[in-house]
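Practice problem: ATP-dependent Clp protease adapter protein ClpS
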Amino acid sequence: MGTKTTLDNDLEILLPKLYRVILLNDDYTTFDFVIEILKSVFNKTEEEAINLTLKVDREGSATVGVYPYEIAEMKVNKVHSLARSAGYPLRARIEEV
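Answer key — structure tokens:
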């Protein structure tokens, strides 16, 4: 379910499992659109967004963030929604860390 962490006073906190959000390459989505997605959905800087976009292009995919499941799912849904609205097939997926 999660990772247990014991504090100094023997209290245990259950930390949520984390999930990678992976952006997938396609032949149609523009670099500019992917960069904007990375900046707006994943709060990346311009430089980070450019580097991640290049990695997706070269390697076929890239991890763009690590989050608890609900947040990862929300970000993937946002990517898909924005891409469809703009007419692009951009996809992302979730993978357990």
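Discussion: The chain is about 45% helix and 30% strand. Students who identified this feature from the tokens alone can consider the problem solved.
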